[in-house]
Amino acid sequence: MSTGDSGAPTRRTLDAAALGERPVGRLLWHACTQTTIAVGVYGIYALTNAWFVARGVGTTAMAAVNLVAPLLLALGAVSTALGVGAASVVSRHLGAGDTSTAARAAGNAFTVFWAAAVTITVVGLSGLEPLLRLLGAQGETLAYARDYAVIILAGAIVSTGFSSLVRAEGRMRFATMLWVVPVAVQITLDPLLIFGLDLGVRGAALGTVGGQAVSAAMSMWFFFAQRDRPYRIRSSDLRPHLPTVRTLVGIGAPSFLAGFGATLLVVVVNTTLSRVAVATAALAAFAICSRIQTFVAMPQLGISQGMQPIVGYNAGRRLAARVRRARTLSLRATLVYSTAAAGSVALLAEPIAAAFVDDAAVRSESVDALRILAIGFAAAGVTPLVSAYFQALGRPRPSYVLSVGTLLLVKVPLVLALGHVGPTGTWVGLAAGELMSAGIALLVLRRLDVTAARGRDYSSG
Fold it and tell me: Which one of 84, 217, 270, 437 is most buried, by most CB atoms within 10 A?
């Protein structure tokens, strides 16, 4: 365990040690409060960004921005996968007192992400036009989508601050600031650039990239300059170490596949809606619903993120009872919140839609969609929580089943099967997919709990 110059444990080291000592309920409450605040402010940004575009440019522009959403989701999938994989390694090895392995895992995560981001930028800009058409952009939406996508792709290199790695050592407050400060920058820049400088969707994209750059800069300071921590990333830790990279990718792959799955699902929905008679209204309604879903999902994500370092650290110390306690409390919290959020969205569907658009057709479609999708919101947090739990344990196989299996065998087939009857069929397919996926996740968890009760090691892969 890292110590200060006097030989006493530093405050940062004690932050990590608390993950294995404080009462799990209190610890989880503190962690989840911090992570929910962090990701919650991003949910607020998702709403305000859509509002600024809808009111400052128009509903067609908002639909176009949503067509580019898969590119943002793809970047998020890469950073989340590497962050989750590295955080699992870091938290478990800090729990075991091995700071050198933790540092190498964090350094390799940065290196692999930077390489992936540069590749995405080059490939995306080189084939931008056919890529946007593949995503469903055409006519007037194509021009708006092009303006937005160019800036988003150009800023890919700064699209993460790896807050998951910060949480892995118990630094919940700084991890929260990695979300709050950049989002504050984004919310400030959006109206200034969209309304003040009349930059339209370009302004929205510049606001997003500007906030991301702030997050990346804060992360660089934390990992490479700050000394009062359990470990520091050295230049040698940045050199790719094949076994470490394989571990990071292996553990984080379910998160990547889940993110890629979300990207694929958005593409499927957009292309399905683009073929209906009321395509513009349906696409604009989906853009609104997507932002509302993002906002609703943020506390669910916060609970999962708050749980992971607690589970990982205690798994590293072989404290199985604390691991189970953290999982059970997290699952209960997710279900209670999701049910309340779903009911609120269903009841407030009309004023929510009216806040974004004045167009009667778009508003009516949005209200119908929100009321149907709210049914799925009630269960939407279960699958990612169970997947995150197994990743924190360093056991990616169950996560593969959930991230890939539920997407390919449940969600996409339902949307394709029901979407041909019109937008309502698409909304029903999305909601039913969430409910069925949650049921599968609980079955997987129950089955593997039986395996663990028979003596399987909690930290085994």
Answer: 84
Query: Are 304 and 80 within 8 A, CB to CB?
Result: no
CB within 8 Å of 220: residues ≥ 6 apart: none
- Residue 379 is encoded by which pair of tokens? 């269960």
Asked if residues 389 and 396 have their Cβ atoms less than 8 Å apart, the reply is no
Amino acid at 425: G
CB neighbourhood size of 236 (10 A): 11
DSSP 42-110: HHHHHHHHHHHHHHHT-HHHHHHHHHTHHHHHHHHHHHHHHHHHHHHHHHHHHHTT-HHHHHHHHHHHH
Tokens of 93: 């090895």
The whole-angstrom distance between residue 431's C-alpha and the CA centroid of its chain comes to 19
Distance CA 202, CA 151 (A): 7
Residues 107-120: b if buried by 16+ CB within 10 A, e if exposed = bbbbbbbeebbeeb
- Helical axes 24-56 vs 279-316, angle rounded to 10°: 160
Helix extents (H) in 155-225: 163-167, 172-191, 200-224
Give strand pairing partners of 60. Answer: none
The predicted-structure confidence for 319-333, as pLDDT tens digits, reads as follows 778 888 888 888 898
For the four alpha carbons of 75, 382, 377 and 33, in that order, the dihedral sign comes to: negative
Q: At what angle do helices 279-316 and 382-392 cross, to 10 degrees?
A: 30
DSSP state of 381: T
Alpha-carbon gap, residue 364 to 369, rounded angstroms: 9
Give residue 314's identity as a one-letter amino acid code: N
Q: What is the pLDDT of residue 20?
A: 63
Radius of gyration of the chain (CA): 22
Q: What sign results for the dihedral spanned by CA atoms 352, 356, 359, 363?
A: negative
Residue 5 phi, psi (nearest 5) = -60, -30
Cα–Cα nearest to 73, from 185, 152, 143: 152
If you average pLDDT over every residue of the chain, what do you get?
79
Percent of the chain with pLDDT over 70: 89
* 3-class DSSP state of 278: coil
